[in-house]
Amino acid sequence: MRGVILMTSIEERAHRFLSILRHCQVLGMTVEQADENGLLLKLPFSEAIVGNPYTGVVHGGAITTLMDTCCGISTVCYLPEFEICPTLDLRIDYMHPAEPGKPIYGFAECYRMTSTVIFTRGIAFQDSRERPLAHVVGAFMRMGKGMMPGKPAGEATHG
Q1: pLDDT digit string (tens) for 108-122?
Q2: Are 103 and 126 contacting, i.e. CB atoms less than 8 angstroms apart?
Q3: What range does the domain containing 95 cover?
Q4: Which residue numbers delimit the Thioesterase domain (predicted)?
Q5: What is the enclosing helix (H) or strand (E) of 92?
């Protein structure tokens, strides 16, 4: 039963985190799964993310946004409490273009955590994780649990 409570808490935190990111709302991103194993986000296909109107191929910037967001929010799957963790570094290797008309999924997990940095990795895919569109690795700075959205840095409490 404890695992169910933990999973629900992780999923709720992931939903809350995604809901405050306006650009993700505009793109229609949704949390598909969030638990101690990682985070799965969905980016639905729309004309707004098409980079080439003649082929319908999705713009790489939309995939970058999906994967930066996915890696950043995946930190809630590992941290016991919410922390602001801005992106320090993000590397994306594109394998092949996304197929027009299909949603794109992003999966990310944290594979190492220090007191100051969280390291993540993931993939973007459409039909199968075994055929990724892109691989990503990212590093995110830990600001501490006292750093909450809308709270000036001078008011932060670290504990």
Answers
A1: 999 999 999 999 999
A2: yes
A3: 2-150
A4: 56-129
A5: strand 87-94
Per-residue pLDDT tens for 98-154?
Answer: 999 999 999 999 999 999 999 999 999 999 999 999 999 999 999 877 544 554 444
Q: Give the CATH number of the domain where residue 42 resides.
A: 3.10.129.10
Residue 71: phi, psi to the nearest 5?
-65, -45
- Residue environment code for 46-64, b if the CB has 16+ CB neighbours within 10 A, otherwise e: eeebbeeeeeeebeeebbb
H or E stretch at 12? helix 2-19
- Burial (CB < 10 A; 0-12, 13-18, 19+), residue 140, is buried
pTM of the model: 0.84
Residue 159, domain member (yes or no): no
DSSP conformation letters of 34-84: EETTEEEEEE---GGGEEETTTTEEPHHHHHHHHHHHHHHGGGGT-SS---
Indicate the number of domains in the chain. Answer: 1
Of 87, 69, 86, 74, which is closest to residue 21 (Cα–Cα)? 69
